[in-house]
Known about the structure:
Blueprint: H1 3-14, H2 17-42, H3 47-62, H4 65-75, H5 80-83, H6 88-91, H7 94-119, H8 123-131, H9 136-166, H10 178-189, H11 193-221
Amino acid sequence: MSYDLLTSAAFAIQKGLLLTLTITFSSFFLGQILTLPVAIALVSRSWWLRSIAKFYTFCLRGSPLLVQLFVVYYGLGQIDAIRHSVFWPIVRSATYCSIFAIGINSAAYCAEVLAGAIRNLPKGQWEASDSLGLSRFARLSKITLPQAYRAIFPSISNELILVMKSSTLASAVTVVEMTGAARIFVAKSYAPFEPFLIVGLAYLTIGAALGFLGKRIERRLMIPAR
């Protein structure tokens, strides 16, 4: 191990840190936006809404994220309708495609977790809200979702860390985040140990920071006496 290479690798990988954080938080934010409507569709009384949501989660959870990333980046660009649409500037960007692919994959997992939490709520609460004359929107926004999100917050916090680790796959489609920067450094120096050691430590540090933040928020949201 060369300490000179460690220093050089650290400076090279530092350039990809901001992009890694951008992909992580953007993908997670997109995933959480999609999670709610998919979860509501999964517990809907409408069979066709449930079928669409189940098909979505089945496809996204059942296939590898790397394959999904390749399909989004290399596949969508082959469709003429997309190439001549307003979405083309987004689709041709490897960074945007990575954010989209990781985001929709994260949404599939979180939607199943949220739907399970909604199903596990006591039925008496649904009956009480009906007896009070609450609308479906009021019942969902004031009774169901606050309890469900409280129950699954540890899973959501863990999902953010998983999304951060999934961002490493963006380097497979030419995105120069930390892993991509390390691969370029290896190609130039033929020294794989030092750069990937730095990358591993960087991901461990980010994951620890996110985990600590999640625990702090979880304590504030914890239901009393539980």
